[in-house]
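Marked as duplicate of an earlier ticket. Keeping the data here for the record.
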Amino acid sequence: MSSVCLSSAYLRVIALALFLLFSGLTGCAGTRSVQDKSCALAGAGRFDEALAVLDSSSLASSRTDRLLYLMERGLLLHLQGSYTQSTVVLDQAEQLSEELFTKSVSAGAASFLINDQIIAYNGADYEVVYLNYYKALNYLLLGNLEAAGVEARRVDLKLRQFEDAYAGKTVFKEDAFLRMLTGLIYQAQGDWNNAFIAYRLAHDSFVANRQLYGVPVPVVLWSLLTTTAQRSGLLQERDTYRALAAERGVQTELIDSLAVVLINNGRIPVKRERMALFPTEEGFPVKIALPEFVARPGGVTSARLSVAGQEVTAEPVENLAAIAFKSLDDRIGRVLAKAIARALAKEIAARQLERQHGDGVGLLSRLFNIVTENADLRSWSGLPASVLLAAVPVASGDHPYRLFLDGRPVEGSLVVPAHGVGFAVHRTY
């Protein structure tokens, strides 16, 4: 492309971008405001209003933010208790995420002239996996163990897909908690052997990622490992894990049926922009903008479950906040490299415009470069910061329970089938 064509195309891009900027259609501020407002309403139990805010916002009609809208809407429907509707929306989100994952990067040319916000949001890897987590929860709460098992297997498929796509060079290629949940689903189905395999993968992942995410092997996992190993006839493996548990001061027990309460706790960190200006030879600055996560307060610091005359402390099983931080750190080098290359390309284009159309156009183009060089701050804001799990061996049947969240009692009930697992889910903010 000749320099004349380039400058003409760039002038058209500047005109369009300035129109969008001044008409208030660009940037992440509006999106973040909608997400925060709908989340606050959901935290107050006002789910209909939270959905109304989301559905009437620009997020609902944005083509580039379509995945983000579906993620937030599917989660709100889950919290509302509309599990079937939630699954329909999350299915749409998953299908779209797969399309975006495999789509060509042709949109990158436009993002190279403006910023990454004009590209369709395709979700962080952990966000895409958590679509299946919430779908699995929906099915569990509807009593559909078979469909929940399908979602668990989808998690495994995606983790393998990410590792292959990035040639192993990605920090998020395993999730201990989701492996453990897979094991619980298999155990609920009476599939002892696959449950043991899932629990073993969970154990190995907890051990491997302890330094990254700060989550130790949950105490209850040792008993689940030894139980499923014994039921599968894997006596050597049972004895191995029993000995490892004993070394850590844990006494294992056989657990044929149990009550499980999951607590999706707090709010995942939010992105903000980190920006720096660098002078050029002409004296006009070039802007570099990067995203960074900031932790948000909220959630509970302790949770205890009282059921069937027993009381246990909920254990941390997932640090999604740490996963978010590490995942962004893992790719920030690529984000920085693209930002630098884009800044250089913009400056070269500005110099061409200045030579061809004068100082005024050159100044306008450089102002355009600074105004439009913004970090992509989009993320699935409704996700929890962490997950806590309380599990108690109980007989089959209906079980009312009381959950103490920072001392505040919350009552519920769950059904434990014969030789199975009963599930309940709570959300804290």
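See parent ticket for discussion. Residues 20-27 have pLDDT under 50 and may be disordered.
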